[in-house]
Design brief:
The structure holds two protein chains of two kinds.
Chain A: H1 7-35, H2 39-42, H3 46-51, H4 58-67, H5 69-100, H6 106-117, H7 122-134, H8 141-164, H9 170-177, H10 182-211, H11 215-219, H12 227-232, H13 242-261, H14 264-271
Chain B: H1 3-23, H2 42-49, H3 51-82, H4 89-97, H5 104-115, H6 122-129, H7 137-140, H8 142-167, H9 171-179, H10 184-211, H11 216-221, H12 233-243, H13 247-277
The chains are: A mainly alpha, B mainly alpha.
Chain lengths: 277, 278
């Protein structure tokens, strides 16, 4: 199927696509550069910024000192990991039984679960806010963990379901015929085949939870605020320092940017609910 | 074994939603303690006849529509480009996709300050350098500015999905048509586009669901303003309930948002449901 393509065509393609890639990536690249500049240099004209001599790592220190980056970072980690793990505990049995013991309602159940994802968050903002206020869960990590688990649960179940469904059921029978006990069956046959799917699901979910910016902004204040809210605090005019804003931004997106690069395929699968593979 | 998941999701759906519906029929303001009398459709009446509702509906349509047009057309172009043979394809693809992983608050603030700030932003610098007056994006065209930011975040998503779909296209079919003398435009029109149709529909529907809920980008850039120039339905509900403490009014707005989102959702669910049978 592969046709011979001249190197010239390839070079032209590379140039065009490379330019587009550069344009898309430029804002991220730009804040990486600005984050290592002094405030005076950071607001110069773009070319002057590039060729200004001073490079500094001071911004990162200042951001930590001024707004306690690590506290927000650990909030983000706890909420993203917590909601993902909690979601898995609930989703794995559900997806497992739907994939291996499907009933005639399985499709309806799956579609209904999906439909819960379609509800716009503003539709339930008021009651959730009031419930949280009355139960003291406003600005708590546990409250946010639960909410993020709930909004992503349909995606977790769906992803796991599409992965589990690809595990052939016959292989279990074969293992049983060979005299494998249930424990061995799970440990040596099922787990190795299920782990990649579960890992992909975890990856996508952490990304989604990390970047969630409706509930995290509305339900937290100082204590439980994750990085999304931490950055939002830089929107006030006095926070308008390009170099520090850049440093804070980089610190907020770097972990997920790196994880995201490994999760391109899972992203398609998870966010299209298996409709595009 | 599915029951914990079903029970949780059912509770998550039904409890807050019925509370929203209930609140929407009460005169209930957090600043005015006391009874919360039942007022029937009053909240809906005031919400729907408020000029900011009309503005918010139009803004929502413009934002969602604008982002969809940019991301679908741009996504098709990007996908076609990235699908061609080239050097360093992996790296280029990573650069194109990266914006999707940037959290909304960061994306909005970076564009607002480093690019669209009329004095120190790069766009302002370029305009001044060329002798034009700089554009004050968030003062003069706030909705367009937000559309650009959101489109930047979602273009990678559209590209990635359309690229995945494009790569599953049967190459033999393309070659056969080429031998039969079809030019590139015809091949795109009659082979690639029909093949992509399904993926395009998925992109449109899924993005619509997420775009209807765009919030952080508005909060950290314009706060819905100037006036209501960049207030969307989601933002309007946030303003009435959490800024004006009008629980009744906010709830009525919430119910309307749910109804609108459900209209989109029905189409999306049909698409995905069909795929389950296949």
């Amino acid at each position: 199927m592969a046709r011979a393509v001249s190197n010239r065509t390839k070079v032209i393609n590379t140039a065009i696509a490379g330019t587009l890639g550069f344009v898309m990536f430029f804002p991220i690249l730009w804040i990486i550069i600005l984050s290592f500049k002094t405030e005076e240099d950071a607001i110069r004209a773009p070319l002057e910024v590039l060729f200004s001599a001073g490079w500094t790592t001071e911004n990162f220190v200042t951001v930590q000192e001024r707004s306690d980056y690590f506290k927000h970072f650990s909030n983000s980690v706890i909420i993203a990991l917590g909601s993902t793990l909690l979601g898995l505990v609930i989703a794995i049995p559900a997806a497992w039984s739907m994939a291996f013991v499907p009933s005639k309602h399985t499709k309806d159940v799956l579609m209904w679960m999906l439909s819960t994802k379609m509800m716009p968050p503003v539709g339930v903002l008021v009651p959730i806010y009031l419930i949280f206020r009355d139960t003291g869960m406003l600005d708590s990590r546990i409250g946010l963990t639960i909410i993020l688990m709930l909004i992503n649960l349909p995606i977790i179940i769906w992803m796991l379901y599409t992965y589990f469904r690809e595990i052939p059921g016959e292989i279990l029978e074969a293992a049983r015929m060979d005299g494998a006990s249930l424990k061995k069956e799970i440990l040596y046959v099922l787990a190795p085949m299920a782990v990649p799917g579960i890992a992909s699901t975890i990856l996508l979910n952490i990304i989604l939870a990390w970047n969630e910016a409706f509930w995290t902004l509305n339900l937290t204040a100082a204590k439980a605020a994750p990085l999304t809210a931490f950055i939002a605090s830089y929107s006030s005019p006095e926070g308008l320092f390009f170099a520090k804003l850049s440093a804070a931004s980089i610190m907020a997106i770097a972990p997920i940017l790196i994880m995201g690069w490994f999760s391109q395929k899972q992203l398609v699968r998870g966010l299209t609910f298996g409709a595009v593979k | 074994m599915i029951s914990p998941a079903v029970i949780l999701l059912f509770a998550w759906m039904i409890v807050p939603l019925s509370l929203t519906v209930y609140f929407s029929f009460l005169r209930y303001n957090l600043l005015k303690p006391g009874d919360k009398p039942f007022v029937g459709w009053e909240n809906y009446y005031w919400f729907l006849t408020d000029p900011s509702f009309t503005a918010a509906m139009i803004n929502t349509l413009v934002l969602v529509g604008g982002v969809l047009v940019i991301t679908v057309i741009g996504g098709i172009l990007f996908a076609l480009l990235l699908d061609r043979p080239m050097f360093g394809q992996g790296i280029i693809r990573i650069m194109v996709i990266a914006p999707f992983f940037v959290m909304p608050t960061v994306a909005a603030l970076v564009w607002k300050n480093m690019f669209m700030n009329p004095v120190n932003g790069i766009f302002g610098r370029i305009a001044t350098g060329l002798g034009f007056p700089p554009v004050d994006f968030f003062g003069q065209m706030p909705l367009a500015a937000i559309t650009i930011i959101v489109a930047w975040q979602w273009l990678p998503f559209a590209t990635l999905i359309l690229l995945t779909a494009l790569q599953s296209l049967d190459q033999d079919q393309l070659e056969a048509s080429e031998m039969d003398g079809a030019n590139w435009l015809n091949r795109f029109r009659y082979i690639m586009l029909p093949h992509l149709a399904r993926a395009i529909t998925v992109v449109i529907l899924i993005q619509t669901i997420f775009l209807l809920s765009v919030f952080a980008e508005i909060l950290v850039t314009t706060n819905g303003g100037p006036g209501t120039a960049s207030t969307t339905l989601t933002y309007l509900v946030y303003v009435s309930s959490l800024l004006q403490y009008d629980v009744g009014m906010g709830s009525a707005g919430g119910v309307i948002a749910v109804i609108l989102a459900n209209i989109v959702a029905i189409f999306l669910m049909r698409m995905i449901g069909k795929n389950l049978d296949a």
